[in-house]
Amino acid sequence: MLVTLKEVLKDAENNQVAVGSFNTPNLESILAVLGAAEELNVPVILMHAQVHEEIMPLDIIGPVMLEKAEKARIPVCVHLDHGESVDYIARAFKLGFTSAMYDGSLLPFEENVAKTCQVVEMAKAYGASVEAEIGTLGKRECGGADDGEGAQIYTDPEDAERFVKETGIDALACSFGTAHGLYLKEPKLDMGVLEGVRQRVSLPLVMHGGSGVSEDDYRAVIARGVRKINYYTYMAKAGGEAVREMMQRSGDQPVYFHDIFTVGMQAMKQNVKRALQVFNMQVM
Fold first, then answer.
1. d(CA 50, CA 144)
2. pLDDT digits over 144-200, tens only?
3. Who is most buried in 246, 251, 280, 282, counting CB within 10 A?
């Protein structure tokens, strides 16, 4: 069932949980995410990131995401992640995406506000939701490792309050110590930043760079108002490692491409299922 971001976040707020939001640049990752969510009977968000355009064009993967979402047995939001171009976001809305994140976090505050307002007005015509960001994680999500490159700017609670009031967005992404990619060391989350934003902002909060965070930290951020957790790198890593193990076991035996897909998809599904259980506070 296809729904908006605002709808799934409202349910998450009512239940005091977080919705898992997963980048799905291929059919196997879409099936893995939806399969895990349906088994647990929880809502989920399928995302396409603008930085994945070279891996899989929006015009190809978008209709597949939407068709699978419409036929799913659970509520599914189809969301554009880290849209840096207003025109690119417009393409997603025209396809039928029910939500988009405009990422103007590297822009001056006033320009970020102006561009975000433009996206919010455009979204209204499609009945879609809008997420935006104040602060920056310093890197864009394409996998790889968090090696400390790129400056991270934590979200200022006063700026967050002003930004929300001036833009009319539906969800706010905050920077408080997570990063995109693999963590080379345990992330140190600044809960004070999150608490400060929550005191001033009543909107659902979003955590980017959600892969690799400890279960205790997931619970802590959910308790402080995080209602959407973006997750991709460790899901993709789980699929890749499963394929590598299969290749090593095969020795000199033939390896078929369809087997690679199947093994990778099943490993991603199990990884997603575990993440969803944590986000939804389900007892193992």
1. 17
2. 444 444 456 889 999 999 999 999 999 999 988 877 665 545 667 889 999 999 999
3. 280
- Rounded Cα distance, 76 and 200, in Å: 29
Cα–Cα distances in angstroms (integers) from residue 255 to residues 19, 69, 202, 242, 249, in the given order:
37, 32, 52, 14, 10
**Radius of gyration of the chain from its Cα atoms, rounded to whole angstroms:** 18
Residue the block writes with tokens 């310093």 = 138
Q: What is the pTM of this model?
A: 0.92
Report CA-CA distances (Å) from 167 to 93, 102, 104, 194, 259. Answer: 18, 11, 12, 20, 47
Catalytic residue numbers, as ranges: 81
Q: Which residues contact 34 (CB under 8 A, 6 or more apart)?
A: 44, 46, 68, 69, 72, 74, 76
pLDDT score, position 185:
55
Cα 281–Cα 73–Cα 230 angle in degrees, nearest 5: 45
- pLDDT band of residue 281 (cuts 50, 70, 90) is confident
Counting Cα atoms < 13 Å in the Cβ hemisphere of 278 gives: 20
